[in-house]
Write a structure and sequence with these properties.
280 residues, alpha/beta, Rossmann fold, two-stranded antiparallel ribbon, 39% helix, binds thiamine diphosphate
Length: 280
């Protein structure tokens, strides 16, 4: 089992930062084989996933369907590259398997399938994650389970009505074991976010959620926000993550069309070197 429920005054920040770095390294290697991928999103969400899987989430890597597990719903199925890297570091899938990312017959698709160990929901069609997470949280409550449900969703998904129906329901049903991690990376398919969604945090507060807004690439803030979301106080929790697409790889952080990144074959060594330099 990973370390869980550690005291706030001694969070394993260096350990978590190292995990996030290793995950980013995996992601670059996976995308390199294909020459492209949803790399920006993966690099941006890496810190939150590292904090979640190696600090907060309760799960058993040897038994991903363990009934007592906390659930993690990745609503943005196209962020799968980050999930596979996380699973490899967590021991849910073998590290060697990452080489099959995006290949025919691979379990590691470019969007998530729930036949892959550790995946709770089929991804691809955006705007469904929070609703499914609400259903899971209700089901766990009916079962008398203390397990919690964490749901990642994107700023683009805030433009879908289904997300707000789910947000309303979570608050109505008092789902205090539900934690939404909202990846506000500011991009959508063709560039910057299409509809103005700000102020995101105020919107969730207005829907009755305990809400914090943080730098989603600052490990200490992510850890503190996850700890702050623990109380079973009758309210769902929202953590608004401000993240940088391509975080950790300078060239990608400043790339304009960051949604689906194509990289020239001779550019990969430079990206890998930038990642190592940024980590120090
Ligand atoms: C319901 C639905 N509509 C459209 C798409 C096509 N699509 C795939 S990724 C994407 C961009 C979504 O932006 P966002 O959710 O903010 O994610 P990010 O920009 O971080 O990749 C779109 C429109 C989809 N997968 N599902």
């Amino acid at each position: 089992m990973p370390p869980v429920n550690q005291p706030l005054d001694a969070p394993p920040l260096a350990f978590l930062a190292e995990k996030a770095h290793r995950m980013r390294r995996h992601m670059l290697a996976m995308a390199r084989r294909l020459g492209q991928g949803y790399i920006g999103q993966g690099l941006g969400i890496a810190d939150a996933l590292a904090a979640l899987y190696f600090y907060e989430l309760r799960y058993d890597p040897a038994d991903p369907r363990w009934a007592g597990r906390d659930r993690f719903v990745l609503s943005t199925g196209h962020y799968s590259i980050a999930l596979w890297a996380t699973f490899a570091e967590a021991g849910i899938i073998p590290v060697d398997e990452l080489a099959s990312y995006g290949a025919d017959d691979s379990r590691l698709e470019m969007s998530t399938l729930d036949t892959t160990p550790g995946v709770e929901m089929i991804g691809g069609s955006l705007g469904h994650g929070l609703g499914q997470a609400v259903g899971m949280a209700l089901g766990l409550r009916l079962d008398g389970s203390p397990a919690r449900v964490f749901c990642e969703l994107s700023d683009g998904e805030l433009q879908e009505g289904s997300t707000w129906e789910a947000a309303m329901s979570a608050s109505h049903f008092g789902l205090d074991g539900l934690v939404a991690l909202i990846d506000c990376n500011g991009i959508q398919a063709d560039g910057t976010i299409v509809l103005k969604m700000e102020p995101v945090a105020d919107k969730f507060r207005a829907f009755g959620w305990d809400t914090v807004e943080i730098d989603g690439n600052a490990m200490d803030q992510v850890v503190a926000a996850l700890r702050g979301a623990r109380p079973r106080n009758g309210k769902p929790k929202a953590i608004v993550l401000r993240t940088i697409p391509g975080k950790g790889v300078k060239t990608l952080e400043t790339r304009e069309r960051a949604h689906f990144v194509r990289v020239d074959p001779d550019e990969w060594d430079k990206l890998a070197a930038e990642l190592e330099t940024a980590h120090g």
